[in-house]
Amino acid sequence: MWQLVLQSLIFGILLGGIYASLGVGFTLTWGVTKILNISHCAFAVLAAYMAYWLLVITGVDPLVSLAIIVPTFFATGLAVYMGLMRSVFKAEDITMASMVFTIGLATVLENLMLYMWSPDPRVMIASYTGKSVILGILVIPITALVCFLISMGTVLFVYLFLHRTYIGRAVRATWQNPELASLYGIDKEKVTMITFGLAMASAGVGGICLALISSFYPSIHNIWTIHLFLIVIIGGVGSVIGAAAGGIIVGLLNALCGVFIPYSWLPVVSFSTLILLLLVRPRGLFRA
Q1: Mean pLDDT across the stretch 152-177?
Q2: Which residues, in sequence order, are CB contacts of 147 under 8 Å at separation 6+?
Q3: What single DSSP character describes residue 265?
Q4: Is residue 110 within 8 Å of residue 218, measured between CB atoms?
Q5: What are the residues facing 283 on neighbouring strands?
Q6: What is the distance between the alpha carbons of residues 89 and 4, in angstroms, rounded to a whole number?
Q7: Is the pLDDT of residue 69 over 80?
Q8: Please, how many CA atoms are within 13 Å of residue 86, restricted to the half-sphere of its CB?
Q9: Are 116 and 48 in contact (CB under 8 A)?
Q10: Nearest CA among 27, 14, 15, 34 for reference residue 243
């Protein structure tokens, strides 16, 4: 029994770290621009399909394809902001307007993927799929371990970018006090555009890593989005460290629920945890 619990804890941490790479872009966009991007996970699924077809058609490893997909998604984020999101900032309530708008965008993306690739689940099988590292009584899947390290590397990159670079400090200044940041000459539109690019690139990483450890299909973005809300609200809106902590908490909840209670009770446990944390710390575990 305890071996099963320990094994679940390890897998929960690995899964949570992967969720964190998906959550960091979502919390960044929400915190900096006040835009609630419901289509974030739909783009993550699109990245998974891109990696899948690169693997099937050309034989490119999904993790190697990150070198192509991440820059492509950064540029996509810039294009989405310039072409679609700028009009949202004219709304009186940016958060509500963006939520409605991006729900529509997510629906369009989902139906395009359904039309192009059918609703059938897909599985990415790389050369290392099914292989494990054995540490005593523990069996650690290599795929989950590598994806965890890449995801944590993504979170660390975003954190260092925000705290150690001029552009990153401009992003944080815009989040904390937009009016004062403008007085100091910070271009709010450029900062917002870069934020969207980073968020979309991190969505690409998270989508590919999640698709490597489980099957995926066009509508799975709805499930990922529920997890994303839990991660961001638990960790704190706008907090990169909070996204990492929230991701691991959600990952552990996912893994341990299968050990102690029926897996169908996972939503009850997840949202009960959310309600408890909101009562104790309404702003989440970490502040931005």
Answers
A1: 84
A2: 14, 18, 63, 209, 210, 212, 213
A3: G
A4: yes
A5: none
A6: 49
A7: yes
A8: 11
A9: no
A10: 27
| Contact in structure between 37 and 24 (CB atoms under 8 Å) | no
Question: What is the band of 288 on the pLDDT scale with cuts at 50, 70, 90?
Answer: low
- Amino acid making up residue 192: T
User: What is the phi/psi pair of residue 70, to 5°?
Assistant: -60, -50
If you write DSSP's letter for every residue of 180-247 in order, what string do you get?
HHHHTT--HHHHHHHHHHHHHHHHHHHHHHHHHHS-B-GGGHHHHHHHHHHHHHHH-TT-HHHHHHHH
| Residue 124: closest CA among 14, 235, 47, 182 | 47
Maximum average pLDDT range among 100-104, 181-185, 240-244: 100-104
pLDDT given at position 101? 92
Sign of the C-alpha dihedral computed for residues 61, 67, 68 and 73 taken in this order:
positive
Residue that has been written with the tokens 């959600």 in this structure: 250
Q: Which of 264, 265, 261, 235 is nearest to 250 (CA)?
A: 235
- Three-state SS at 129: coil
**Which of 229, 259, 258 has the alpha carbon at shortest distance from 246?**
229
* Nearest residue to 253 (alpha-carbon basis) of 242, 267, 243: 267
Rounded to whole angstroms, the Cα distance separating 5 from 112 reads 40
The two three-digit tokens of residue 223, written as one number: 């499930």
**pLDDT tens-digit profile of 199-210?**
999 999 999 999
Helix, strand or coil, per DSSP, at residue 165: coil
Q: What is the pTM of this model?
A: 0.91
Q: What are phi and psi of 139, to 5 degrees?
A: -120, 115
- Within 8 A by CB and 6+ apart from 141, the residues are 11, 14, 130, 131, 132, 213
**177: Cβ contacts below 8 Å, ≥ 6 apart:** none
Residue 276 burial (C-beta neighbours within 10 Å; 0-12, 13-18, 19+): exposed
